[in-house]
Design a protein that fits this description.
single chain; alpha+beta; 75 residues; globular
Length: 75
């Protein structure tokens, strides 16, 4: 991603509330990337699920609950 450094800098500098829902079988992104995001944004709420890239297709209810809870707290 061409703007990755800009995004990482923004996260480090501003520390916005963030929610990550990640499928550990994602063929596009490696789970090791979670650690790099957590370094820049240590308060990030991260959930690693036993699923693919398209978690809403396989874990819709769980993801919807996490998203709704996150929005209630920070929205």
């Amino acid at each position: 991603m061409s703007r990755f450094d800009d995004i990482a800098r923004y996260l480090r500098d501003h520390q916005p509330p963030a929610l990550m829902l990640w499928g550990r079988h994602d063929s596009y992104f490696d789970c090791a990337e979670i650690l790099s995001w957590l370094q820049d944004l240590p308060r990030m709420e991260a959930h690693v699920l036993d699923g693919p890239h398209m978690l809403l297709e396989t874990h819709a209810a769980y993801c919807a609950e996490r998203i709704a809870d996150f929005v209630r707290r920070y929205g």
